[in-house]
Amino acid sequence: MVDALQLLTEVVQAFGVQTYIHGAGLTDLEDYDSSLRSRLFQHFNFDRVLQFFHDMKRSAIYLCEDMYDCRYCLFFLPEDLENYSWCIIGPWLESPLEYAAIDAIIQRGKVPSRFRPALAQYLERVPQIHSIHSWEAMLCAHISSIYRSYGDKTPISIFHYRSTLDFPVEAYSPEADVTLTMKVIEEHYHHENALLKAISKGDADESFRCMAKFGGYPSNGWTINKVRESKNYLFILDTLLRKAVENSHVHPAHINSVSAGFFRRIEQAAHYQELVRLVEAMIRRYCALVKKFSLKGYSPLIRNVINTVDFNLQDPLSLAFLAKKFNVNPSNLSVQFRREKGMSISEYINKKRMEKAELLLNNSGLYIQDIAEQCGFLDTNYFARLFKRHFGISPGDFRKKNSVVNNV
Fold it and tell me: Would the N or C end of the chain have less CB density within 10 A of its end CB?
């Protein structure tokens, strides 16, 4: 049972949605909506919400939508699960709320206009589930599995409710706009830091989990031009991701080439969904950059040597050349490089040159002689012998083989 419940919790958290498990007393019920109602209202009566829970049926799933268009999934936990009674999953949004939708919520809930920025910031933080039918089917399947794991094979009933978690509007708190905004900002910085930490480690999976919670940047209110606002957000996000990658000692030249490409793609995007897809691409690309080029853990000298080799493969590189460039003893440099990198300097130079040769053979129409020169080999025959020793095939045959594969 615990495994099934834990699996459900991990699945929904992967989408940025929270799971709240409450005991019979529901003493911390005000946290189920990230304290939205307790901050908006002077005295929100949670007893009425508690009564709804007491009236719920077992072996049933309640899919509820509140007055703020936020959705929740509620259900009783099996009786054999000690110390727990109810599970609340949510909130989530079915789709992004546009400017007009915020106005409708404010009018429907008689929300004072001064609370609009704070409420908009809160709703910007709520995760969006784009395929709502698949999402609800997934929830039902997991909850049914939880019941079955306790031997309860009773068919699950599904109930849909609108505004179940809201009741006659009470007096709004005079400080709600301030306290709610502070809560949003605090959570924003917490999730932002977690995201940047994951990016700096090159951990794409953890980055996506953090991004789902991070959501976006609070604004002063929702603008009519959602595409322009989203572009501005992505420019900010790109800057933060770049700094996270730089903190992992990735050379700025690598970062700049990636960032420049994303800058163009962001500005050229014409639709909101293009920008949504770009967020995923940015996270994957920057994490890959860390995985491939991070020099964290190396001494400043060895970082400089590695970067010099990586960016100057066409030059006559050697141990003597690098020792002279950085004004160190060749023998000491050789020992230190092998200790930190696990290979000799000449082995590393040849490794990087072969990687570049492979890239050029696969992605350019350059003559093999020209490729050899770009990789730092003035003798094409020597380049060919070294390439065959490394790949087990000549450069010409390598290109033919990969050309056939790529055209299949």
Answer: C
